[in-house]
Amino acid sequence: MRPGLREPIPTVDLQTDRAHSARVYDYMLGGKTNFAADREAGDRIVEEWPGSRASARAARAVMHRLTRRLATVHGVRQFLDIGTGIPTAPNLHEVAQDVEPASRVVYVDNDPIVLAHARALLTSAPEGRTAYIDGDLRHPGKILSDPALRGTLDLTRPVALTLINLVHFLSDDAVHSLVEQLLDALPSGSFLALTAGTGDSAPERAEVASRRYREAGIENHLRTRAQVERFFDGLELDDPGVVLINRWHPELDDDPVLGDHEVMAYAGLARKP
Description:
Layout: H1 21-28, H2 36-48, H3 52-72, E1 78-82, H4 92-99, E2 104-109, H5 112-116, E3 129-134, H6 140-145, H7 147-152, E4 160-163, H8 172-184, E5 191-197, H9 203-215, H10 225-229, E6 236-237, E7 243-244, E8 265-271
Parallel strand pairs: 1-2, 1-4, 2-3, 4-5
Antiparallel strand pairs: 5-8, 6-8, 7-8
């Protein structure tokens, strides 16, 4: 049996009485998988920063561009996506398998509503494979030892570790070590693709969003460019380095097209020597 494709998805407590970062993000993207607590947190951000929805769409779009570049330019065929979020088409595996149908993707998230909707993440092309792990970046050993990962990815071949819209929900005290543990388990030629929230481009707007997340009980940490570059220490940064998401390989048909002051995240891609 293919890992992650036919196993029943267990009943879970959706914890709808409190905001969750994945559901707030879904709401900002115009999705339907969110609840009153999530919408309240999102509305407070939008009230003070009307352009925040466009910024959220730009954060989603850079994931598509990172995935396409990994698949087309670097020939990556295996992806470990942690902090997946609520399914929003096209999902990462759809982008990768559009380039190479045999691509394999393992999704990881700890939000119970993502687990409840995991079937949408398992619609792999026949030539490829997808799996879902109910896991947490804070427990890399559990992710790496999960049978779904071992049955889907070949860890003797390059893997792209994708951490999109995630690391700003963890402090520096923890997150660098966690990312290093995951990269240490991947072979030479693997990649780290990462986006991280920042206040560099729009300090006042960034503080509004950060404060509203904290008020909703969601920990978050904005980082400078130099702090984001630390995640790539010892790796070979891909062109153009760590830049604001609107400047990371923009495409002519990007929608929306935003200025630097309208985005609050950096993106970077790097190869493990």
